[in-house]
Design goal:
Elements (H helix, E strand, L loop, with lengths): L1 E3 L5 H12 L18 H13 L3 E4 L22 E2 L12 H7 L3 H18 L13 H12 L1
Parallel strand pairs: 1-2, 2-3
Length: about 150
């Protein structure tokens, strides 16, 4: 249903432990195949791949995506992702992730997945020879840079 990104740090370890103990969580180990979860470029690639697969992302810190990709992601992040605010590893109480995810209705999940699908053109680079009806990642980046000048 939902996808989260984490590394094998102390904090990430608790997230992984909760996921493994849960019946509703599927752990995606992004460290295999040379991808490192602590490398921002790798994390963004995994994030983009998960969006392309229709996964609803789960974030634990606003800096993971909401603050980094202002030009590409909607301001209302609750429309396409789940945010579980955890400042410290001690805040990650047993079962918190599962309780949060189970609390999402099927209707909410469907709406979020539809929003994720609408995000796809904003996160990929289109073939420059094609005629798009929407802006791609490159268009949004250039537009964002020009607005800051």
């Amino acid at each position: 249903m939902l996808q989260g990104l984490t590394s094998k740090t102390r904090f990430g370890g608790k997230i992984i432990d909760q996921c493994l103990a849960s019946s509703v969580c599927k752990l995606i180990d992004c460290s295999s195949g040379g991808i490192k979860c602590d490398n921002p470029a790798s994390v963004m690639r995994v994030f983009q791949s998960s969006i392309l697969a229709g996964c609803i992302p789960v974030f634990f810190h606003p800096g993971t995506a909401y603050l980094q990709y202002l030009w590409h992601l909607p301001k209302n992040h609750t429309k396409y992702s789940v945010f579980i605010p955890v400042r410290y590893v001690e805040d990650l109480k047993e079962g918190l992730i599962e309780r949060t995810l189970v609390g999402i209705s099927k209707e909410e999940e469907l709406e979020m997945r539809e929003e994720v699908i609408r995000l796809i053109p904003k996160l990929v680079y289109a073939d420059p020879m094609s005629r798009l009806e929407t802006e791609d990642a490159f268009d949004l980046s250039v537009k964002g840079i020009l607005e800051t000048i």
